[in-house]
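Troubleshooting: if your tokenizer reports a length mismatch, compare your output against this known-good record of 179 residues.
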Amino acid sequence: MTRFFDPQTFAVVRPGTVSFIQKLAASNAFKAMFKEGMGLVEEAAAYLDGPGREESRQLRRPAALAYATESMRLTTRLMQIASWLLLQRAVSEGEMTLAQAATDKHRVRLTRQEIACAPEIFEELPVRLRELSLKSLRLQARVMHLDRCLFAGEQDAKVGASPIASQVERLRAAFQQAM
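Known-good structure output:
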């Protein structure tokens, strides 16, 4: 069966096949994820600028420090997600190609983040901050999965034909997921 590398989509494809993951980025499911992500950004901003500010003042010192750290991580995580979603929307609306989105100039580097504090301190944080953090982590995992699927061909192209380099790249990806 003949396969070729498509430099526009960074995918190894057979002639006549349609990339499921690329169709997903232009689907109603992606639109729902986009709406969810942007809604979460607005929700977090409203909380952190309003009730969260007041709630943070009532925390004991270790929890207040954890609140400050977690709110910064939440904000950073949501900005990465929002940037990625906006970039993918630009691709799905034809404002740029997937190849352009994959360039270093445009590509959003997603970094996996976990809760920074100990579980017992996390439990002391306001319920709303915990909910927002956990929602953002779940959304981030979904976005990172889509990102890996969309740009898997690009990684394969960078790795080249070396089977050792391919295995090293897989190990690196596995360790990044675990972090």
